[in-house]
UniProtKB/TrEMBL annotation:
Start and end residues of each Cobalamin-independent methionine synthase MetE C-terminal/archaeal domain: 432-755
Protein's UniProt name: 5-methyltetrahydropteroyltriglutamate--homocysteine S-methyltransferase
Cofactor detail note: Binds 2 Zn(2+) ions per subunit.
Function: Catalyzes the transfer of a methyl group from 5-methyltetrahydrofolate to homocysteine resulting in methionine formation.
Species the sequence originates in: Salvia splendens
Cofactor: Zn(2+)
Family in the record: Belongs to the vitamin-B12 independent methionine synthase family.
Residues binding L-methionine, per UniProt: 437-439, 490, 605
Gene3D superfamilies (UniProt xref): 3.20.20.210
Keyword hit for Amino-acid biosynthesis: yes
CDD domains in the record: CIMS_C_terminal_like, CIMS_N_terminal_like
Amino acid sequence: MASHIVGYPRMGPKRELKFALESFWDGKSSAEDLEKVAADLRASIWKQMSDAGIKYIPSNTFSYYDQVLDTTAMLGAVPPRYNWTGGEIGFSTYFSMARGNASLPAMEMTKWFDTNYHFIVPELGPDVKFSYGSHKAVNEYKEAKALGVDTVPVLVGPVSYLLLSKPAKGVEKTFPLLSLLDKILPIYKEVIADLKAAGASWIQFDEPTLVKDLESHQLEAFTKAYAELESTLSGVNTIVETYFADVPAAAYKTLTSLSCVSGFGFDLVRGAQTLELIKGGFPAGKYLFAGVVDGRNIWANDLAASLTELSSLEGIVGKDKLVVSTSCSLLHTAVDLSNETKLDQEIKSWLAFAAQKIVEVNALAKALSGEKDEAVFSANAAAHASRKSSPRVNNEAVQKAAAALRGSDHRRATNVSARLDAQQKKLNLPILPTTTIGSFPQTVELRRVRREYKAKKISEEEYVKAIKEEISKVVKLQEELDIDVLVHGEPERNDMVEYFGEQLSGFAFTANGWVQSYGSRCVKPPIIYGDVSRPNPMTVFWSTAAQSMTKRPMKGMLTGPVTILNWSFVRNDQPRFETCYQIALAIKEEVEDLEKAGITVIQIDEAALREGLPLRKSEHGFYLDWAVHSFRITNVGVQDTTQIHTHMCYSNFNDIIHSIINMDADVITIENSRSDEKLLSVFREGVKYGAGIGPGVYDIHSPRIPSTEEIADRINKMLAVLETNILWVNPDCGLKTRKYGEVKPALEHMVAAAKLLRKNLASAK
């Protein structure tokens, strides 16, 4: 029985690629140094899978930034502003597209389906001249082959690539992106021909958009694309891989009718309905790549249950045509559990990271072949029994409190307009008030202080003194810049979710459980293993300390329940909404304690609310109901004069704008600049928004410093569709990833732009 891995994490077990990228970007190392680190990581990944007995090992899933951007490079679809003149696309052009540079903005970045990974959105139009701009897929296949590993090169499929793209600036928004299929397929043919010539016997096309609600003409594009590629694919086996959800019946029929495709990959963890479709009929002679090992979570597979499921599939597709696989790329999980030397041993026994999932895949494949490792299966069964019966998982009081929430709407008694009036009387803010999103640059010294405190090399007194000094610097800087509503800069936090999870019951933490979010940005998701509660206040000490340093309003900074949920590895033994309600109750206690301590502006970030939206429209309503309800629970008890902010970043919000309004926050700050001000189109189309709103005026994920004039122009565009009295001026997101040399001038220009427009508005009266 064969085994297959859809894809693998890129950063390395100790984030080796992250540090190599940042060193290269800072000019401290060469391109050759970066390439050497990358080659070593790829070699170790291929060896690991080969040694584990995996038959179908992926290549070209490694990326210096993002696999969709890699496809853009492969197709030579470089936006004209980057002045690419042809030839093999190098790091300069590639990273300018990803990150921008001193003079040019980056391409748009948005969430990859419903994950916390971000991809770079291709900008396409009728005038794009596609050409074979990157030979990365072929080069990596040859590289693996030279090491003695025959891999399956992975390409983002042509139809999904176009469906994930957007019309370039200046191109009609209604431009049919699928009309470019005939222009990109010749490049795919060149790549396929090169892979065949290099000796590839299998090629994997990732077509994850097949799990979405597609119209008939979009499904027809798949039929057309693979019919066009059929002659080129002759002599090579082809996998079309889907993941993240069920494949709808119409898409399943379209996919399994593709005659040139040898095998089909399905997510059978999140795809119970797909399983029923397979049982209802699977094409004879085709391979089924059965994704039974979860690529998106860290819980150990239930090997006995998976083996039962695989045995039933074996009867449908045939013993020689069933391949055991992961549900999706392992990019979305942590790298290796063996690096977790300090994790609680009982909890550790319940887990499997990417390296362990490879072993699980192979163990299942061997068991199906009659080589079942009884010791492995017995240990797995014992771990599952331990988790089910562990008293640390269940807290009856928490479960009762969460269950009691379902009978109420949890909405503040006064409408937002009246609340804003009461808040303005108390806060006395100017029109176009300025603020930032929360974090300020995380300096080397600051990271050292946190690291030494965690390692008990400095005392709590020394730690508190150092953090207060950092807060004082951030407060003083904001006052010098004349920002209206301040933040304390979050110097005590390495990660916004980890910080809260460490102080809540039911959470566990890893030392090296890093997962890539975008580029070199990695996050270390907490593990929610049990019922959640708040033993003690979490932020009150730091928020009150910061407020004592200024007469200006100081925001209390919290992470919302939906974001904590969506940015964690969540327990899979109860519905997600039940866990979310538990977190909401814990955050509610913190909000009320902040208010009692005199904090009058409280920001409850819900950066990941959109991220958790199911991929199928039929499931949107249920998710949005409990997600929005969870947010409202957190602040239902505060006074009218307490201003509740929330923040959302890097996603497409237009289709859920009414749910955002239903959150009933007093002020929302939201990403806007990197997506070509897509958000503003909602208001141009007539949606009325009565609460405060701050669409981001500049992109903090780029080192580029915008001018005062550029920011003023953005604010003017906002004023064309939003009332002056509700508009806030702020960056797109937190500033922790930037340097002070970038942050200071950008914020100076932001404040100057706000003052300029205040003056213009006053003189126009």
